[in-house]
Specification:
Helix content is about 25%, strand content about 25%. By secondary structure, the protein is an alpha+beta fold. It folds into two domains: about 60-145, Ribosomal Protein S8, Chain: A, domain 1 (2-Layer Sandwich), CATH 3.30.1370; about 150-350, Cyclic phosphodiesterase (Cyclic Phosphodiesterase, Chain: A). Keywords: RNA-binding.
């Protein structure tokens, strides 16, 4: 049948009506999409997406270098995937896994939840097919990670010395003022005050160790900077534009060298696939120390989703918390408590 686009085959119908015939060719999987069950004949000719990247970017993914050729000439890759992703990878009644297998002509084995192994195994007749499946799985996992809540964050601790003492003083002054809608539950604990440099989704020990390795790789960014970093914490600001209805009140932090380091760390971690959605969407880290946050209130005590910070800013807007030094950066577990009442620390980069 002709493939000429400008003169396609037509079918004459009643009342002199003519319709173009949509031709589905064999190289586009026509038999499959017209309902013929090739599997019933022992064949598997499912439509395979043209791989625009082919082998050009195989080696950009380190996992591709671990693809093995089996004794029978097939190719196999064992890919570490946290168990939290298994449901999304399999899909409803296996639909997602089956789609990837059909489009890439591979076989994918996903371990059961009670198995020790965290390796998803991809098998195929050709290496390029394994790479195609690897790319699809990577894209899928990145999409699933965006929907997950953060588990860890990079922090600079500010819970000692002058800054902590001045924080306690400010908290006492605000509470003694007895401002409407302001209570102690809004304040972060003085044992936990910190500066956040990044937020991540780390789902198992392997990913936590990988994050620590990436943090150590950020040591290179210290070469042209003066350490320890000097920080000045001075003045109060809010995250939104309406002080009468705000969720977060914070102390402003000034440190030019720390800002440079923080932004380079952000850019580095954005290439790892470990960042939470908020970190992937920003170009720079806002240096700040949270003082009050409406999320700290217990559900039963919440009065709406915000608090009125106008009087606080009027009375204490230029409050000086003093100075501090940044000598290390910690990878911390969100919503946790360590032995010293600070967040539980998984590892650190010490300057």
């Amino acid at each position: 049948m002709s493939r000429e686009v400008l003169s396609p085959p037509v079918q004459t119908m009643s009342q002199n009506r003519r319709y173009r015939v949509n031709v589905v060719h064999e190289d586009f999987g026509g038999a499959k999409w017209n309902g013929q069950n090739k599997r019933a004949k022992g064949e598997n000719k499912a439509y395979q997406e043209t791989d625009l990247y082919a082998d050009d970017d195989d080696e950009e993914d380190p996992a591709a270098t671990r693809i093995e050729e089996t004794p029978n000439g097939d190719f196999k890759l064992a890919l570490h995937v946290p168990k939290s992703f298994y449901g999304g990878l399999i899909g409803m009644k296996g639909s997602t896994k089956r789609r990837i297998e059909e489009e890439t002509r591979t076989e994918i084995y996903v371990p059961r939840q009670n198995e020790r192994s965290n390796d998803v195994v991809i098998k195929a007749k050709q290496r390029s097919q394994v790479c195609a499946a690897l790319r699809q799985i990577r894209h899928l996992l990145a999409s699933l990670r965006k929907k997950m809540k953060p588990t860890h964050f990079l922090a600079v601790a500010l819970n000692t010395g002058e800054v902590q003492q001045r924080f306690v003083e400010l908290k006492r002054n605000i509470l003694e003022a007895q401002l409407p809608g302001i209570d102690e539950e809004l304040f972060i604990s003085e044992r936990c005050i910190h500066l956040t440099l990044g937020v991540y989704v780390l789902l198992d020990d392997d990913e936590r160790q990988r994050a620590l390795n990436e943090l150590e790789a950020c040591r290179q960014f210290l070469a042209d900077l003066k350490t320890p970093f000097d920080m000045k914490v001075n003045g109060l600001e809010i995250m939104n534009d309406d002080p009468s209805s705000t969720r977060v009140l914070y102390g402003r932090i000034e440190s030019s060298d720390l800002q440079k380091f923080a932004d380079k760390c952000l850019a580095h971690f954005q290439t790892t696939g470990l960042c939470a959605t908020d970190n992937n969407d920003r170009e720079s880290i806002k240096l700040h120390m949270t003082v009050m946050n409406n999320r700290y209130r217990k559900e039963a005590m919440k009065s709406g989703n915000s608090f009125d910070a106008r009087e606080i800013l009027k009375r204490f807007g230029d409050f000086d918390f003093g100075s501090a030094e940044c000598q290390d950066v910690h990878l911390c577990v969100l919503k946790s408590r360590g032995e010293d009442e600070f967040y539980k620390i998984s590892g650190s980069l010490k300057f």
